[in-house]
């Protein structure tokens, strides 16, 4: 279908560009990933990240702690990586097992190595439009919109979902591109009033088929960030079959935002390397 935004293809283009830059600059950036516990989905995500890093010429270091480890030992490991000049990016795979203080752990990461863009300085600098590392999924959404030449200036963009990881950083990135942004969440009343006005609709909820065709206008651009498991299949938050008939552009799940997230992680590792080596 010609109105489908091919995130796989777009991510390949982005990854090729990154690999070329790494080769041309003759650098070997390094990403360190920490996993606590053995969450199966996290392991799959980490395998994908490892492969993408190694394909691009980024060194990948992986530490897997059992969920019985103390929080202080995880903090100690992060501090060691902060002080290691050969490590440019540090990523703690989320979610952490119950009982770990996510905020404390994430905010131990040196902000210039925080390739997930979740530490306080990066969050603040994003709002203030200073240089910073931005969370990979919102960055991936913006890259996809750019690659498909979707103009944002003055457009009504509705985001559904206000998480720190996706919805909130997207507000800032969209405002920087002069969009008019509305954001809905679980306490919003009549979401349809907002989604129906949207020229561009971005959905990041984690609720299969939440958005139906009566909730969007003709020619809308739809970005479906949601990933939901249904049996053996993965589906998004948007009723793809019915909305793809109305939309001018729409992302599939899988093969939409997911691959862009991984590509943008590589982008952030290279950016972190550059910030540290100026
Ligand atoms: P999250 O932290 O659970 O946040 C979900 C958001 O959706 C919250 O703001 C919540 O509102 C809102 N919400 C829940 N039910 C709603 C409803 N019925 N109507 C409107 N809003 C509702 O999730 P997340 O981390 O942002 O992830 C969202 C989805 O994106 C998940 O499916 C996740 O797997 C997927 N994801 C995909 C990628 C990727 O690379 N493709 C990356 C990250 C996440 P409240 O704030 O009021 O609770």
Protein described:
It is a single chain. α2 packs across α10. Strands 5-4-6-7-10 form a five-stranded parallel sheet. Strands 2-1-3 form a three-stranded parallel sheet, sandwiched between helices. It has a two-stranded antiparallel ribbon with strand order 8-9. With 278 residues, the protein is an alpha/beta fold. The protein is built from ten helices and ten strands. 41% of the residues lie in helices and 16% in strands. It is globular, with a radius of gyration of 19 Å. It folds into two domains: 26-110, 3-Layer(aba) Sandwich (Rossmann fold), CATH 3.40.50.10860; 136-258, NAD(P)-binding Rossmann-like Domain (Rossmann fold, 3-Layer(aba) Sandwich). A hairpin with a 2-residue loop joins β8 and β9 (233-235). The protein binds NADP nicotinamide-adenine-dinucleotide phosphate. NADP nicotinamide-adenine-dinucleotide phosphate binds next to α10.
In short:
41% of the residues lie in helices and 16% in strands. It has 278 residues and is an alpha/beta fold. Helix 1 runs parallel beside helix 10 (257-276), helix 2 crosses helix 10 (257-276) and helix 6 crosses helix 10.
- Quantity of strands, as a count: 10
- End-to-end separation in angstroms reads 45 Å
Ligand identities: NADP nicotinamide-adenine-dinucleotide phosphate
- Residue windows where pLDDT falls under 50 for at least 5 positions: none
- Secondary-structure-based class equals alpha/beta
Rg over CA atoms, rounded to whole Å, is: 19 Å
| CATH class category label of the largest domain | Alpha Beta
Q: Give the biggest beta sheet.
A: 5 strands, parallel
CATH homologous superfamily assignment of the largest domain: NAD(P)-binding Rossmann-like Domain
Principal-axes shape call? globular
Q: Total number of helical segments?
A: 10
CATH topology of the largest domain, anyone? Answer: Rossmann fold
What amount of the residues lies in strands?
Answer: 15-25%
Total domain units:
2
Give the integer mean of the pLDDT values. 97
Helix content: 40-55%
CATH architectural type of the largest domain: 3-Layer(aba) Sandwich
Strand order of the largest sheet: 5-4-6-7-10
Order of helices and strands: HEHEHEHHHEHEHEEEEHEH
């Amino acid at each position: 279908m010609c109105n489908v935004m091919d995130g796989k293809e777009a991510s390949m283009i982005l990854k090729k560009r990154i690999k070329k830059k790494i080769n041309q600059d003759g650098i070997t950036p390094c990403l360190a990933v920490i996993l606590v516990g053995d969450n199966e989905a996290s392991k799959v995500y980490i395998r994908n990240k490892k492969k993408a890093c190694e394909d691009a010429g980024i060194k990948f270091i992986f530490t897997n702690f059992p969920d019985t480890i103390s929080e202080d030992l995880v903090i100690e490991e992060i501090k060691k990586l902060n002080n290691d000049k050969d490590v440019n990016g540090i990523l703690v795979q989320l979610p952490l097992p119950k009982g770990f203080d996510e905020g404390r752990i994430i905010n131990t990461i040196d902000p210039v190595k925080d390739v997930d863009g979740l530490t306080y300085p990066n969050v603040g600098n994003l709002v203030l439009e200073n240089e910073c590392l931005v969370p990979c999924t919102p960055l991936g959404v913006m890259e996809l919109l750019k690659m498909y030449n979707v103009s944002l200036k003055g457009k009504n963009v509705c985001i559904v979902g206000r998480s720190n990881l996706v919805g909130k950083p997207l507000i800032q990135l969209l405002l920087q591109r002069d969009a008019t942004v509305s954001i809905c969440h679980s306490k919003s009343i009549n979401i349809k009033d907002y989604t129906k006005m949207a020229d561009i609709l971005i959905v990041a909820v984690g609720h299969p088929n939440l958005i139906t065709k009566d909730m969007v206008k003709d020619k809308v651009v739809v970005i479906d960030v949601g990933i939901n498991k249904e049996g053996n299949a993965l589906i998004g938050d948007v009723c793809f079959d019915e909305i793809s008939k109305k939309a001018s552009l729409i992302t599939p799940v899988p093969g939409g935002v997911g691959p862009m997230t991984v590509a943008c992680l590589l982008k952030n590792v290279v950016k972190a390397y550059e910030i540290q080596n100026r």
